[in-house]
Amino acid sequence: MEWSAAGARALWFGLIGLVCLVAACGASPTTRQQSDPPAAPCRFLTQPIAARISGDAKVTNQATDVVETESGYVACIFTDAMHEANSVEVQIKRAAGGVTPSDLQAAVRFFSAGEPVQPFQPFSAVGVGDTALGESTPGVAFIVFAKGRDLVCVGADSSFRSIAALQAGVADIATQVAAGL
Asked: Which of 14, 20, 56, 124 has the highest Cβ tally under 10 A?
């Protein structure tokens, strides 16, 4: 089977979302609090915002504040069902003991590993949350940040946008999410 660059990026971004939901930062059911859930990510990510960031007006909500019970993340994901290389997501997890710098580093290392197109490169995410790390590669950008007890993943995948535009788009929504938490 032969993969196009867009197909490989779509697969990778989907894996990023899955990993953020399931395994990032050592998440487990014991690290979240049922009585104190994180903010609903779809409060921050809407179809017009996802369309602007991805460059695809056909993105629709594929996950509306879906709770992943194993990891504790709550996800909001917009994707173009016919062109899955265009996606934007916000995922939030509340950590009972707070988010450590090693949690943040582990998440970024994990997301950066195994990129099928080329390695991710860090980009500045200064001013987002309490601490943040951003990474990108052609067609994909994400920021993982901490704000208080919340760990947030904001990512975008686009076959239309430049790396700089994706970085700016995820930084913009990440800043808005951080301000709203």
From this structure: 20
Is residue 166's pLDDT more than 90? yes
What pTM value is reported for the model?
0.79
Phi, psi of 167 (to 5 degrees): -60, -45
- Euclidean distance between CA atoms 142 and 173, whole angstroms: 11
Largest CA distance in the chain: 47
Q: Which residues of 43-74 are buried (b: 16+ CB within 10 A; e: fewer)?
A: ebbeeebbbbbbbbeebeebbebeebeebbbb
Query: Measuring CA to CA, which residue among 87, 132, 128, 124 is closest to residue 108?
Result: 132
Contact 61, 138 (CB under 8 A): no
